[in-house]
Amino acid sequence: xxxxxxxxxxxxxxxxxxxxxxxxxxxxxxxxxxxxxxxxxxxxxxxxxxxxxxxxxxxxxxxxxxxxxxxxxxxxxxxxxxxxxxxxxxxxxxxxxxxxxxxxxxxxxxxxxxxxxxxxxxxxxxxxxxxxxxxxxxxxxxxxxxxxxxxxxxxxxxxxxxxxxxxxxxxxxxxxxxxxxxxxxxxxxxxxxx
Length: 194
Known about the structure:
About 45% of the residues lie in helices and about 20% in strands. It is an alpha/beta fold.
């Protein structure tokens, strides 16, 4: 029996996680997506941001249900907190093949610009200071996430959107695109277990 897939789309706000997940949906037709934002819209369509905590709790409840069912699932994360590491560990203990698809941009200013553009289209806005803080935490947390994933793909979503530049598997990097964007080169070099 093959392992069920747990696919974690990671990156700071505005990096393009949701867009990537949507573009890859055809590659994973049976994938259940656990989306706290969508769950918040289910709970309170008129003001979903007011129920973020309830949506997070419901996402966690659904996460544990899906682990029991062994159904393939995906989950988006900014990778800026500690709870996502527990989810990755729980998925591995439950027998899942854990993949990390990290989507990034060259700087937090790029993320801020993308979120501003999104807000102008009527989608949810996030304070620039929050984005800066999450961007730094997310970058800092990549090595820990790599250690918990069976396989990781790192994408730059600025120069060549949705193009995978790095693959990480069995503690080894494989470079898939050159030249590496500066932010990816820094991750590669700081976690260089070739």
